[in-house]
Write a structure and sequence with these properties.
Layout lengths: L9 E5 L4 H12 L3 E6 L6 H13 L3 E5 L5 H15 L4 E4 L14 H11 L1 H10 L8 E5 L3 H4 L5 H21 L5 E7 L12 H8 L10 H11 L11 E4 L6
Parallel strand pairs: 1-2, 1-4, 2-3, 4-5, 5-6, 6-7
Helix pairs in contact: 1-9, 3-5, 4-7
């Protein structure tokens, strides 16, 4: 059996202090990678606290660093700090995302824009700032979603953003192929994270009926797909979206 060894590789995981990002942080660190967890300032300081607590849990080879995916200047400063600390940038995981669910008739323009700014434009900005710093043969893995393929009620903003991530992934994979940088996405189904727990119980019950495997996913199962795509085992896989949803698909 071939094991995954990311020793000497450096990964940046946006929003890596909670949910799927935290599981990914643990998975890449366990494989030997240096890991930088990004956070952006929120009014109660929770994002920074979670990122720093996760970094403290892992200890060696892990840092928490401020980086707002909505700002190219912030991203650039963050990436420079990471490269200065670890000496390279080899893996970029676009995980940071927000939800502002509401049916389109009730959705405010700022609710639409906030989700697009973080979940889609944020991926673009991180990729744009990363490519000049990313090692040849590096990896970009972005978090898409089942919602970007089947659409969920009240998620026109989120579904549009995640569908956009898939298109961005396909196009960017062609632009970076000459440098052997692979660009892929992972599209989770319903995974029991803090974000998913905001879904009303009745709605979760209906979702469960759509899953042939009869259960929701776990953060570790999504993180393992990201780990695979970040590894040498995926050298010839690019421009793809890996679905991790227990068989639920359109």
């Amino acid at each position: 059996m071939t094991s995954i060894d990311l020793t000497s590789k450096t990964a940046v995981i946006t929003g890596g202090g909670q949910g799927l990002g935290k599981a990914t942080t643990f998975a890449l660190h366990a494989a030997g990678a240096n890991v930088a967890i990004t956070w952006f300032a929120d009014p109660d300081g929770i994002n920074q606290q979670r990122a720093e607590e996760t970094a403290e849990q892992l200890g060696d080879r892990t840092i928490a660093v401020e980086g707002d995916v909505r700002s190219r200047d912030s991203i650039g400063l963050m990436l420079d700090r990471v490269v200065k600390r670890f000496g390279s940038l080899d893996i970029v995981v676009n995980n940071a995302a927000i939800l502002k669910d509401r049916s389109i008739g009730k959705m405010e323009d700022d609710e639409w824009q906030a989700v697009i700014d973080t979940n889609l434009s944020g991926v673009y900005k991180v990729c744009k700032e990363s490519i000049s710093r990313l090692s040849d043969g590096g990896r970009i893995v972005s978090m898409a979603s089942l919602s970007g393929f089947v659409g969920f009620f009240g998620q026109t903003n989120y579904s549009a953003a995640k569908a956009g991530v898939v298109g961005l992934t396909k196009a960017l994979s062609k632009e970076l192929a000459a440098r052997r940088i692979t660009v892929n996405a992972v599209a989770p189904g319903v995974v029991m994270t803090e974000m998913a727990e905001t879904i009303p119980e009745a709605a979760r019950g209906q979702m469960l009926k759509q899953i042939p495997m009869g259960r929701f996913g776990t953060p570790d199962e999504v993180a393992n797909a990201i780990l695979f795509l970040s590894s040498p085992l995926a050298n010839y896989i690019t421009g793809q979206t890996i679905h991790v949803n227990g068989g639920w698909f359109a």
